[in-house]
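[09:14] KT: can someone run the structure on this one? pasting the chain below
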Amino acid sequence: MHAAVVRSFSAPPRYDTFPAPVASDEREVLVDVLAAGLHPRVRSAANGSHYTSDGTLPMVPGVDAVGRAPSGELLYFVADDGVPGTMAEQAVVDRRRAVTLPPGTDPAAVAAAMNPGMSSWVALRRRVAFQPGGSVLVLGATGNAGQLAVQIAKHLGAARVVGAGRDPDRLDVLKSLGADEVVRLGTDEPDALARAAADVDVVIDYLWGQPAEEAMTELMTARSDRAKALSWVQIGAMAGRDITLPSALLRAGNLTVLGSGQGSVTAAGIVAELPSLAAEITAGTFAVDAVPMPLEQVEQAWSTPTAPGQRIVLTP
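[09:31] RB: done, structure tokens below
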């Protein structure tokens, strides 16, 4: 079969041939892939930098996709460990990691939104005891996953959502997506974030690095009640892999720092959330901007810039 094939972590995948996968038991089915999202998680796996990478080459990237089974059934699925990725003409689907999609579903929209959407959906439903009426700060809200996080937090009942990022044009979009207030990080107003989000219940953090380090200090110092719990959920590291965390912040306030991703949430827990999120995406609950590109253009896709909220989707 044809696939996007990584033969070196220092070069983008190339359109090449690769052995077709084979279903090995009754729980597996071989599907024709219709759309696979080019997510940051996929990029990091393809360059060997993701924390789950074992360094094995060659490899086919891709963590999820929409495919059609021989029966005609349309499936969204998450790739199992130890099998070729989803950026290929065919993929093996473990039915326990798949959701049936209704006829008429746009495969590109689902492939574009499920992975970034799952990051905040799982965080708010599985990693913290978030309750309707609570408040959320999305740190890194101008990215694709961040924009979805703003919408998802509102959909799950947040009374107040604050979006924070650096791009002023992208920040303007957030208010139309449900953000009650937006903050431009790195402005000349050092207390802007504290004024907007000092008393939030949950932080969804896609940045980490220096922005998270600064924001953590700002928020914990400015909270009106330092004994009020703040759950800081670390999801992405777009601004840096490490922070310096002053010990005083942990003693002088009720701060819990935790992660959400592979390992911190069980595979069964993630799969259990797939149907509800897929249903909302299929219903058009969230704004999704998929950019389909043919699989044979994978090298070009790797360097194609996208506008705010867009996600490239490869279509075999």
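[09:33] KT: thanks! The chain has a mean pLDDT of 93.
[09:34] RB: yep, looked fine to me
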